[in-house]
Write a structure and sequence with these properties.
Distance between the termini: 10 Å
Helix content: 40-55%
Number of helices: 9
CATH topology: Ribosomal Protein S5, domain 2
Strand content: 15-25%
Structural class: alpha+beta
Shape: globular
Number of strands: 10
Largest sheet: 6 strands, antiparallel
């Protein structure tokens, strides 16, 4: 039996500029997706075959397996649940082929993440960013420079630098599901077409990623919170947020967060809030009806399980 798991992730600052060659700081959350392959006399597959077919189209298996998927990551909430499941599945498939990738260096993890993203985009036909696969493979708290990336051409591998700091954040999901492509696709088309507002907005978000990295490294929480709020305002101005997210962001700020913004793609999804008192913020938000919370822990990336 082969089992692998991978975490979700929350973008702290700079997303979605990864798609356009920008800088993003992101963190793993302690919610994981798991794939298990068990040798069998006949195939037993999940109901939704898109990710399974994507992985095995590139790396077919020559014997049947019972495939079991399990996930703690809220579905279609913008914290990369599908990418995490694909990464875990791909690692299992490669292990079943006796081609388990080495993931013991930054460069090897980065290369495997590029493969995960390529399969998700070109085999599963999911319009997705570049930070998702990198964060899910690396785990931890990472600063990622995607210089040379493009919505159409993937460009060179990113520079990925692990950070080590406290994580004064609370991640809160709405009850609204949506597909990331419904957000990323139209915005990418507008950027490629040269729409001035989108080009300038994405450039500013990328700059906010670099400024936010400096604030995080210096533990300047007030500045980081203000930068996160600007990141959210620019994203919303480009149509990448949505009323459920805007309402949740306002609630986080009203209850004392230094900053709050989309953790991933918008029109529903999840917010990450910067707060030195996550217990108080969670209590206040629960009183308003929110129920899906997690605390980023910068845990491990994709891995084979015992």
């Amino acid at each position: 039996m082969i089992r692998a798991s991978a975490p979700g992730r929350a973008g702290i600052i700079g997303n979605p500029s990864d798609i356009y060659g920008g800088t993003v700081v992101s963190v793993a959350v302690p919610l994981r997706a798991t794939c298990t392959l068990q040798p069998s006399d006949e195939w037993s597959l999940p109901d939704d075959l898109r990710l399974w077919r994507a992985a095995t189209a590139r790396y077919p298996l020559d014997r049947p397996y019972r495939v079991v998927w399990d996930t703690q990551i809220p579905v279609s909430r913008g914290i990369s649940g599908s990418t995490a499941l694909l990464a875990a599945t791909l690692l299992c498939v490669l292990a079943a082929r006796d081609e388990t990738p080495e993931l013991d260096t930054v460069q090897k993890r980065t290369a495997f993440a590029e493969l995960v993203r390529d399969i998700e985009r070109n085999e599963a036909d999911v319009v997705c960013g570049y930070q998702d696969a990198q964060m899910i493979v690396h785990g931890g708290l990472q600063a990622m420079d995607f210089r040379g990336k493009h919505p159409v051409e993937p460009g060179p591998p990113p520079t990925v630098i692990a950070l080590h700091d406290d994580l004064p954040f609370l991640v809160v999901s709405t009850d609204v599901e949506r597909l990331s492509g419904s957000v990323h696709g139209p915005m990418a088309q507008r950027w490629v077409a040269g729409e001035e507002a989108v080009v300038e907005g994405i450039a500013r978000i990328s700059e906010l990623g670099r400024l936010g990295l400096a604030a995080l490294e210096s533990r300047d929480w007030m500045t980081l919170g203000a930068l996160m709020q600007e990141n959210q305002r620019v994203t919303a101005s480009l149509g990448g947020s949505g009323e459920p997210i805007d309402r949740l962001v306002d609630a986080c700020l009203r209850h004392g967060a230094f900053g709050a913004k989309l953790a991933g793609a918008g029109l529903g999804g999840t917010v990450i809030a910067l707060t030195l008192d996550p217990d108080h913020l969670e209590s206040e938000l629960r009183a308003e009806g929110y129920t899906l919370f997690t605390r980023p822990d910068g845990g491990p990336g994709v891995r084979l399980e015992p």
